[in-house]
Amino acid sequence: MMGQFDKNALPVAIIGGGPVGLAAAAHLIKKGEKFIVLEAGESVGSSILEWGHVQMFSPWQYNIDQAAKELLENAGWTSPDEEALPTGRELVEKYLLPLSNLPEIKEQIMLQAKVVGVAKKAHDKLKTGKRDTVPIEAKAVIDSSGTWTNPNPILSNGIWTNAERQLHNEIHYGIPNVVQLENRYQNKTTLVIGSGHSAINALLGLATLQQKYSDTKIYWVLRKKQIHEVYGGQENDGLAARGELGIRIQQLVESGRINILTPFHINGVYPTNDKITVVGELSGEEFTIGDIDEMVVSTGFRPDTSFLNEVRINLDSTVESIDTLAPLIDPNIHSCGTVRPHGEQELRHPEKNFYIVGMKSYGRAPTFLLATGYEQVRSVVAYLTGDVEGAKEVHLELPETGVCSVNLASNSCDSDIPATETNDRSCCGSPVLTRLEMKNNSCCE
Ligand SMILES: Cc1cc2nc3c(=O)[nH]c(=O)nc-3n(C[C@H](O)[C@H](O)[C@H](O)COP(=O)(O)OP(=O)(O)OC[C@H]3O[C@@H](n4cnc5c(N)ncnc54)[C@H](O)[C@@H]3O)c2cc1C
Predict the structure, then answer these.
(1) Is the CB of 57 under 6 A from ligand 1?
(2) Beta carbon of 40 within 6 Å of any ligand 1 atom
(3) Ligand 1 in reach of 144 Cβ (< 6 A)
(4) Which residue among 22, 92, 370 is best mutated to probe the pocket of ligand 1, counting the most ligand atoms within 8 A of its Cβ?
(5) pLDDT at 397
(6) Is residue 441 part of a domain?
(7) 102 and 200 share a domain?
(8) Is the peptide bond before 263 cis (omega within 30 degrees of 0)?
(9) Are residues 314 and 263 in the same domain?
């Protein structure tokens, strides 16, 4: 695919034309560096379009990369209202599409180009030789392919079963557009699994449908010890729209209109007479839920590393993020959902000039934000283009969830926002610690 390039001017290959991949392209343009974007879908932002109906909780000011903004503004584009909250579709239509249509970028994007393998030319993984100096067809590879295309399965043990695969017509992974799929969900019994923002969005959509179609029944299955753990920082959240999600779900829970089963661990899911049966343990006791028509699985995503088998990468055994980032984002132990600013140095793998950035850099951790990815690619591109000092100067300032400072005793470890370096009130922005140190120091313990 890349044979077309002159060996003397190899491009940087960017895998994935989502917001972080396109931001990498913008930074490379700024540095006068050749690149190519390989996007599996029919459009840039194709994963985001799958949740295009969902309103983002961060306003435009956090969703636009600075280098991309400069390129767009030079071409006469006007930035949307900084305080407004785009939907996923608006993010694509008002930002990613105009960006991808800039002449400097358009020619370098290949759509429907799914990457199925990354390797060193003439060197499989085992062959050491001079791996770092063997000519490859791209100068560097930036994998920004996200995780959206690789959802977690239903079972609590994380294993895909044939029974679950058989039910693919009755299961939606992610957040269904209930308005568009009214016929599918009206007056049906739907079981929603998960405790993050995706599950909350799905529940709020179904609850709206329930007001119109009163026989619509909703189950919510999650693993939290107590339901209030999902409410988040609410009014104290630095992002009002994210706080609002917590307020609205609390109101829905208190209205008694949904059946909540928590802590629930799912051990099996089976088709039974045109319905679905779920078996598991509720608070440690065996429990079966029958007569389910539809399921919405919002249990997160995992990185697809199948096409990286021939490159040398270091992934954490638990989180599947790059191992240096794992202690900062491991939801089992990390405090406040925070991550300190990080860049090229932390994102390095044993394979030279190979980086995983964006959502995928967080592996299975659910806490990634766009602004983090934009700073990652700024730093990586600075390094790749010889600006070592610029690569080291990483900055990240984001609003906090408001969870840590108000509710230290509760489970505040599922929040999303990286903190500023200056925040010492909520133990955010702490230096990189080992897992053991994190456990001993965590403000969530
Ligand atoms: C519902 C929802 C709401 C969110 N709201 C916010 C928010 O308000 N604020 C915020 O900061 N973050 C938010 N996020 C988190 C995150 O910022 C987004 O998931 C964002 O899309 C991640 O960008 P990305 O470029 O890393 O990956 P993606 O947007 O997933 O882009 C990856 C691209 O790679 C392509 N691809 C995949 N595999 C291959 C392959 N093998 N070869 C070639 N191409 C491939 C995909 O088609 C896709 O276009 C939200 C996420 C979700 C799911």
Answers:
(1) yes
(2) yes
(3) yes
(4) 370
(5) 73
(6) no
(7) no
(8) yes
(9) no
Q: What are the distances in angstroms from CA 317 to CA 301, 326, 371, 420?
A: 16, 9, 26, 27
User: Ligand 1 centre from 20 Cα, in Å?
Assistant: 8
CA 63 to ligand 1: nearest atom: 11
* Contact 39 CB / ligand 1 (< 6 Å): yes
Q: 38, 39, 244: which to mutate for ligand 1, most atoms within 8 A of CB?
A: 39
- Using one digit for the tens of pLDDT, what is the confidence trace for 49-62? 999 999 999 999 99
Please give the Cα distance from 122 to 317 (Å, whole number).
29
Structural domain count, the chain: 2
Ligand 1 atom closest to the CA of 20, numbered from 1: 25
Q: Is 38 in the pocket of ligand 1 (CB under 6 A)?
A: yes
CA-CA distance, 37 to 54, in Å (whole number)? 26
Query: Is residue 271, in this structure, part of any structural domain at all?
Result: yes
Report the separation in Å between the CA atom of 195 and the middle of ligand 1, taken as the mean of its atom positions.
Answer: 19
Per residue in 3-46, pLDDT (tens digit) is 344 446 799 999 999 999 999 999 999 999 999 999 999 999 99
Nearest CA to ligand 1 atom 41: 115
- Residues 24 and 16: their CA atoms lie apart, in Å, by 10
Among the three residues 262, 297, 332, which one is the final residue of a domain in this structure? Answer: 297
Domain that holds residue 131: 7-150+301-436
CB atoms within 10 A of CB 432: 14
Among 264, 297, 330, where does a domain finish? Answer: 297
> What are 23's two structure tokens?
């931001």
Which helix (DSSP H) or strand (DSSP E) does residue 327 occupy?
helix 326-329
**pLDDT tops 70 at residue 358:** yes
Q: What is the CATH number of the domain that holds 215?
A: 3.50.50.60
pLDDT tens-place string over residues 279-290 = 999 999 999 999
